[in-house]
Amino acid sequence: MNFNIENKASQMRKGTLEFCILLSLLEKGQMYAADIIAQLQTMNIEIVEGTLYPLLSRLKKEGLLDYTWEESGQGPPRKYYHVNPEGEGFIKQLIKQWKDLNQSIQSLISNYEKNH
Amino acid sequence: MKKTTDARVSKTLFTFDQDALEHLEGYLNSLEEHFKGNEDAPEILEDIEASLAEKLGKSKSESIDLKIVTEAIKKIGTLDELASSLDSSQTAKESKDSEKIKLARDPATQWIGGVASGFARYFDIEVMWVRILFALLLFFIPTSSVVYALLWIFMSEEASHLNRKEIDSLKNQRWYLGLGILIVLATSTITGLIFALAFGNMMSSFGAIIPTMFVTRLPETLFLIYLAIKLFRDHQPSKFSAVAYVVFMLLTNLLLAISLASMSMHF
Predict the structure, then answer these.
(1) What residues in B contact A51, CB-CB < 8 Å?
(2) Is the minimum CB–CB distance between A78 and chain B shorter than 8 Å?
(3) Looking at residue B207, what is its pLDDT?
(4) Are strands B12-17 and A78-83 parallel, antiparallel or unpaired?
(5) pLDDT tens digit string along B214-237?
(6) Please, what is the average pLDDT of chain A?
(7) How far apart are CA A49 and CA B51, in angstroms?
(8) Quick one: how far is CA A63 from the chain centroid?
(9) Which residues are paired to B15 by β-bridges?
(10) How much is the pLDDT for A97?
């Protein structure tokens, strides 16, 4: 039973993964892969770099993200990702969608809790 | 002291312990396989290599050992983790679909070179039927082994659903089994034919194969199998083994031809 809950919860988190990445990028301005992973960890989303890179390159290809090369002081230069203006517009629409969805779910939950 | 090798990871030069470098290379190869079919693969792999280089660069020790590599790989994610993640499930499905129509050797279920496994996957039938067909062909027409060898050389190899490490472990187990069967078949066919000829029964020689093998040539066959196992344990199964196999079969067939000739001259 516990296993099922964990499974469903992780599916929910995975479903919102892209949204979370875009939001944190928007908030922080720019981040590189390890920053993003650390940020997601604080939201209880466990993700490895091997999963993140394909996602980032896809978002970049969809025209939502851009990156710049920054020297890291040690090791090779890093790709710092940021949301571009089109991406920002896209995220604003997503935020609206999310709020609507959240409202529907909230009302379902409060209806249930009122009757029990 | 451990043997070390210098190698570049994303333009940075590192000194690796031999086993650490092999592990890293194996991992990168399996990633390449994993991202096959994803059009961003070159960029993704570049990103991963750069990230690995950064992680390895943090190590203070003289050479990169297996532990450091394993730690770095853990951060990128093992193949299992990547395979179970949401984003890659899509690409994995796509590459599986394209595999279905491709005729390629399948190392995941191979015994010898994976040719039979490849055909079985291509036609979607049990691999055992293909093996039986091959064995029958080889048993009755010894030279058909050359056809197998040519298929082995010219069909490309393709891993199906398993990662590199799993395939290698399968290979190492089944390889000897297949080779043993081969050698038993080859020697029994040759000795059977020679003995049948010696008794002057040229046309119906096959009846004599099994008894003569067990009675007269069993120690020799066992010794040959032992030698073959030793040979292929020293050399990792590769293209080399395919070539060695061709040479072996050609030699035995040559031997067969020579003995046929000398026998018929004798009579």
Answers:
(1) 77, 81-82, 85-88
(2) yes
(3) 47
(4) unpaired
(5) 444 444 455 555 555 555 554 455
(6) 88
(7) 9
(8) 16
(9) B6
(10) 93
